[in-house]
Design a protein that fits this description.
Elements: E1 10-15, E2 21-27, E3 35-39, H1 48-63, E4 71-76, E5 85-90, E6 93-98, H2 101-104, H3 107-118, E7 122-127, H4 131-134, E8 140-146, E9 152-156, E10 159-163, H5 178-187, E11 191-195, H6 201-206, E12 212-217, H7 220-233, E13 238-242, H8 245-254, E14 259-264, H9 276-293, E15 294-304, H10 311-325, E16 329-335, E17 354-360
Parallel strand pairs: 6-7, 11-12, 11-14, 12-13, 14-15
Antiparallel strand pairs: 1-2, 2-3, 4-5, 5-6, 7-8, 9-10, 15-17, 16-17
Helix pairs in contact: 1-3, 8-9, 9-10
């Protein structure tokens, strides 16, 4: 049962079928997800002190993580007890996303808690995600405190690149692949290929060990930033190519090109459940072609950020791709999102990134 307040969206008490209180939740009356649980203690007071404690706990948890970077996720929605709230830290600045109408009602308390815990030089709200439209909330990019630069240098395991908090993907960079980039960079060798390279984050890590890296993306604008990132690191063995990954892989297969290291990190192919069958076909096609390009002993790191594609579906797709590739492919590692993007076993929505490290035998 829900004791709906007359004021609409906000924090509400939640009752069981007998009318007994069982906790507190964010209430979004027009949303597909109307209740988002905040606290299972019906005696809790969801006030300023409550938000300060919840934010401080999440920040302290990250302080204990071994993250070799000045950029990290501080709040990962439900996984940190803050449903529909994302907060990423880029050096001295914060970028937040408030993705429910209920959460918008406590925005001042959230911002006050973040300021108290971290004393940032500025906070930017990247509230331009499509999910807000389903909550009947405006889409905007809004400076809510201090000042935030258009570009911020991220230092990640010795690699430097520019994040774009105002207009880049997600909150400015793909922080969820941090550990995977480091892992691939440590294993890269020979001729390497980075598909869907965006700003070149994987390519930058691979370039330190590989002889030559092809960084591929359909966006010339994204690769222009990748070029600047290469210059920032003094890297000269990365070749930037503007092209469709599907077309490039097909042509490379026909030309019998060979790579010792390949990265496939595409955007989400399945943004809805209805799109899943066609997405699986797309994932299978690019993985099959990448497998055929691997040199003997070559490594393929492949990922999917489509939430609707389960881990089992992802692995089944890779098995099918391997079978059709005509190669003997070994599964070396099953991977996921970065350590500061925790996935709760009981809340599958907190985990979306699936990845694997494969080897051609």
């Amino acid at each position: 049962m829900i004791r709906q307040p007359a004021t609409g969206a906000g924090v509400v008490p939640v009752l069981d079928h007998r009318g007994a209180p069982i906790g507190w939740a964010l209430w979004s009356p027009t949303s597909e997800i109307r209740l988002r649980l905040l606290d299972q203690d019906p005696g809790a007071s969801i006030d300023d002190r409550w938000w300060h404690r919840r934010i401080a706990t999440a920040v302290e948890r990250r302080a204990a993580m071994l993250i070799d970077s000045n950029a990290r996720r501080l709040i990962h929605g439900e996984a940190d007890g803050c449903p529909s709230f994302i907060c990423d830290q880029y050096d001295r600045w914060l970028v937040v996303q408030l993705m429910s109408a209920g959460l918008e009602q406590v925005r001042p308390r959230l911002l006050a808690a973040l300021t108290d815990a971290l004393r940032p030089e500025g906070i930017l709200a990247r509230n331009d995600v499509a999910l807000r439209a389903k909550e009947r909330l405006p889409l905007s990019v809004e400076l809510v405190a201090g000042d935030v630069p258009r570009e911020i240098e991220v230092v990640e395991h010795g690699v430097r690149f520019l994040a774009a908090p105002w207009d880049g993907q997600k909150t400015g960079a793909f922080l969820d692949q941090r550990e995977n980039r480091i892992l691939v960079g440590e294993r890269a060798r020979g001729r390497a290929l980075d598909c869907f390279s965006y700003h070149g984050s994987f390519a930058l890590h691979m370039a330190r060990r590989a002889e030559h890296v092809v960084a591929l993306d359909a966006s010339a604008l994204a690769l222009a930033r990748a070029r600047l990132n290469c210059e920032r690191n003094g890297i000269h063995n990365v070749e930037l190519i503007t092209a469709s990954a599907f077309e490039f892989l097909t042509a490379a297969d026909e030309q019998r090109r060979v790579f010792e290291t390949i990265v496939l990190d595409p955007p989400a192919f399945a943004k809805t459940r209805a799109a899943l069958p066609s997405a699986i076909r797309g994932y299978k096609d690019i993985n099959m072609r990448a497998m055929r390009l691997l040199a003997p002993g070559g490594l393929l790191f492949t990922a999917s950020c489509s939430f609707h594609l389960s881990k089992q579906d992802f692995l089944d797709m890779l098995r099918s791709a391997a079978a059709d590739s005509g190669r003997t492919i070994a599964l070396r590692m099953v991977l996921g999102q970065a350590v500061d993007h925790p996935e709760l076993l009981t809340i599958p929505e907190t985990g979306y990134l699936k990845a694997a490290l494969l080897e051609a035998l």
